Amino acid sequence: MELHIVSIPGDGIGPEIVAEAKKVLNKVAETYGHTIEWKDILMGGASIDVHGVPLTEEAVEQAKAADAVLMGSIGGDAATSPWYRLPPEKRPEAGLLAIRKALNLFANLRPALLYEELAAACPLKEEISRRGFDLLIMRELTGGLYFGERRTTVEDGVRRAVDTLVYNENEIRRIAVKGFEIARKRKKKVTSVDKANVLDSSRLWRSVVEEVAAQYPDVELSHMLVDNCAMQLVKDPAQFDVILTENMFGDILSDEASMVTGSIGMLPSASLNDTKFGLYEPSHGSAPDIAGQDIANPIATVLSAAMMLRYSFDLDREADAVERAVKKVLQDGYRTADIWSEGCRKVGCRQMGDLLAERIC
Ligand code: IPM
Ligand code: MG
Question: 274-328, pLDDT tens digit by residue?
Fold first, then answer.
């Protein structure tokens, strides 16, 4: 098979982790008889430095022409980087929001699971972590507060800011369908998370999710208020299978979910539209404080590449091979600094990439 992949190294540790994920994917291609055509595009701060904007039209067109996009991370240190002296719509994050919208990537899948080998890193009490967990947050990604109208004004000398949270039923329905479809391939449980005791948009969310649920009688649906969900994620994460939620709640809960795994450097994500196209990126950020030191953990990006093989190319065998290599490397005792513990061998980003590629078979 010929795979046309656009890569977005981005900022901070992005270029380092993408290089390792490419190394692993190239090894997969070599082992399984595929060819990959790579094209790099600029986004975020890297694009601002060259073009003055965080995403150009040409970059969007190049991404659209590919089968899938592999991204590292974007953004810098807001306190020190000149990118953050630009108006909000010209900052690195605006590029990410713009590409999600331009490619209609409305479904964001963020799996969070506790690796047996890394259980010691889990910050939860042993009686909770012992039960393990394997959940997936299905976050709506192109609507809600992040895309509603916003403005800041001054009225009678008083500054005032407005953001708007809008959803229509079609936007809710299509993400709910994605949530139920993926639940069917997992433990068949959907927890729909909203704030229906306060927000109209949440009441609509709940009613549309119930309509969709009627088409999936084999999947169990429950509703949970977002504040309660934040609490349940640290109290009893094993209760969850698929958490289906809107854009901002998903943004917040997915950081929490990744933290309770104790290894944010391990968690991949996929952003999908209605076709096979997807953008794949680690759940973590650009970590500018450790950029360029060869100490970042490339595993989340490598696992994002595995999601790409699975969702965009239907190459399940190849995706399994990548996930197996990750397990094997952990079992063999290799760790990057973020997941290192006594008795393990500390390796850098590049060496971790080499070790993973060697284990592709
Ligand atoms: C994420 C990030 C982004 C978001 C930012 C960088 C705009 O936090 O992917 O979770 O809020 O979606
Ligand atoms: Mg976030």
Answer: 999 999 999 999 999 999 999 999 999 999 999 999 999 999 999 999 999 999 9
- CA 270 to each of CA 41, 69, 121, 234, 343: distance values in angstroms, whole numbers, following the listed order: 18, 10, 24, 24, 33
> From the CA of 331, how far away is ligand 1's center (Å)?
32
| Ligand 2 centre distance from Cα of residue 38 (Å) | 27
Strands annotated E in the chain = 2-10, 35-40, 68-73, 107-113, 134-140, 150-155, 158-163, 189-194, 220-225, 242-245, 268-272, 278-282, 334-335, 345-346
CA-closest residue to ligand 1 atom 10: 251
Looking only at the bridges linking them, the beta strands covering 2-10 and 35-40 are parallel
Handedness of CA 39, 45, 357, 284 (dihedral sign): negative
Atom of ligand 1 nearest to the CA of 247: 12
Closest ligand 1 atom to 254 CA: 10
Q: Is 296 annotated as a binding residue?
A: yes
What does the alpha-carbon distance between residue 55 and residue 43 come to, in Å, rounded to a whole number?
5
Active site residue 195: yes
Q: Which ligand sits nearest to residue 73's alpha carbon? A: 1
At position 104, the amino acid (one-letter code) is: N
Minimum-distance ligand to the CA of 281? 1
pTM of the model: 0.95
Q: Is 255 a catalytic residue?
A: yes
Kind plus residue range of the DSSP H or E element containing 102: helix 92-102
What are the pLDDT digits (tens) for 5-57? 999 999 999 999 999 999 999 999 999 999 999 999 999 999 999 999 999 99
Task: Quote the DSSP letter at residue 143.
Answer: S
Residue type at position 107: A
- DSSP 8-class letter at 297: -
Distance of CA 51 to the CA centre of its chain: 26
